[in-house]
Structure formats: C-alpha cells, structure tokens
Amino acid sequence: MESGQGIPKGGVKKIILTGSGGTFREMSLEDMKKEDPEVLRKRSTTHPNWDMGAKITVDSSTMMNKGLEVIEAHWLYGVDYDDIEVVIHPQSIVHSAVECQDTAILMQTGWPDMRLPILYALSHPSRVPADLPNPRDGRNFDDWWIGDGKDGKLTFGKPDLEKYPCIRLAYRAGRIGGTMPAILSAANEQAVELLLTKARASLVSLRCL
C-alpha cells in the first residue's frame, strides 16, 4: 500500500472505517421487527449527525455506505479485505483511521461536515484556511473537547451484522470480485429508490437492501 501523511511506504497495517450506525443505532433488531414498516421507512431518511440527502441517509441507516467504502478502500489502496475494518462510532468525530505496523493508530477527526473532505479533495496536498463552523449548533470544536453540551467522549464498537447485513454483503461481493460489486451497488440503488418512492415500504426492503 502506498502511504502518505507522514506514514512511510509499507507502514500501514489496517484501514479502519467509522460509521455512526445511522438512525437505527439505538434500536434493537427485535424492536425493528415489531415496529410499523411505515415508521421505519420514514425514520430511515433521517440521520442523527449528518445532512446528506435522502439516498445517502438511507444507506447510512442500513450501513450500506460503509460496505461500499470497504470495496472502495480495497481498490483505491490495494488493501486486502481482511485488513479493512468497520466500526460504529456514534459521535461522528473520528471519520477514519489507519493502524500502523507498530500498532499505532492515526485518526482523522473533525465535525460531521462534508465541506471539509470536499475542500481537502480539491486542495490536496495543501491545507487551505477555511471557516467551517459546526452546521448543527454553531459550537466551536474546542467546546466539544471540554464537554459543553456533550460528555466529550469518543466511543467505538463492532457493528451487529445481523442488524446491518449490508456490511456482510459488501465484503462478500468484494471478495467474489468481477462485476459483483457493481451488481451489489445497482441492487442497492433500486432498493433505496423503492423505499423512497413508497413502492414497497416493508421491513424486508429496509433490512435487505
């Protein structure tokens, strides 16, 4: 793997992709099964941390977005699927991390604001001065660290693959290779479209994107 940002070539052991867990993060699979499908459909288009548009928000609810990122990371960085890990990080402050060969973990942090990664993508390798306040409540980043309005904690956990089967599907499609990742992406596009247009608002369509 080609390395950068202060890591020598060959220094990266693992890529860690963080995801908030979406709107169903605090809802158990058992409770989801009991809930009215229409309530689940409407809830799937809201996100606790990000404002990303309906389609990506649904992908976050199912964590298909992380599954697709796993495939992207494999192809962009030449990392084996066994060395790409998805973790739940509710605060959406750590956006990704790399584990180095010496076990050190370097994290990229910031407010959940897509303008920052877009800016960096356009300006790379430079860091352009910018004024990007937290779009949710206007606080400064320093306020988060001292706990004003929050506890200032960062938490991480393993995703429940029964609750988020799309992650498992993505790893499987990626390992099969060929056109399977494209087939997975196309199937997800159609399933989300059905969900958003209310063509089939059911728990099955929500959980099996």
UniProtKB/TrEMBL annotation:
<keyword id="KW-0479">Metal-binding</keyword>
<comment type="similarity">
    <text>Belongs to the DXR family.</text>
</comment>
<dbReference type="Pfam" id="PF08436">
    <property type="entry name" value="DXP_redisom_C"/>
</dbReference>
<feature type="domain" description="DXP reductoisomerase C-terminal">
    <location>
        <begin position="110"/>
        <end position="198"/>
    </location>
</feature>
<protein>
    <recommendedName>
        <fullName>1-deoxy-D-xylulose-5-phosphate reductoisomerase</fullName>
        <ecNumber>1.1.1.267</ecNumber>
    </recommendedName>
</protein>
<comment type="pathway">
    <text>Isoprenoid biosynthesis; isopentenyl diphosphate biosynthesis via DXP pathway; isopentenyl diphosphate from 1-deoxy-D-xylulose 5-phosphate: step 1/6.</text>
</comment>
<dbReference type="InterPro" id="IPR013644">
    <property type="entry name" value="DXP_reductoisomerase_C"/>
</dbReference>
<dbReference type="InterPro" id="IPR003821">
    <property type="entry name" value="DXP_reductoisomerase"/>
</dbReference>
<feature type="domain" description="1-deoxy-D-xylulose 5-phosphate reductoisomerase C-terminal">
    <location>
        <begin position="11"/>
        <end position="77"/>
    </location>
</feature>
<dbReference type="InterPro" id="IPR036169">
    <property type="entry name" value="DXPR_C_sf"/>
</dbReference>
<keyword id="KW-0560">Oxidoreductase</keyword>
<dbReference type="Pfam" id="PF13288">
    <property type="entry name" value="DXPR_C"/>
</dbReference>
<dbReference type="InterPro" id="IPR026877">
    <property type="entry name" value="DXPR_C"/>
</dbReference>
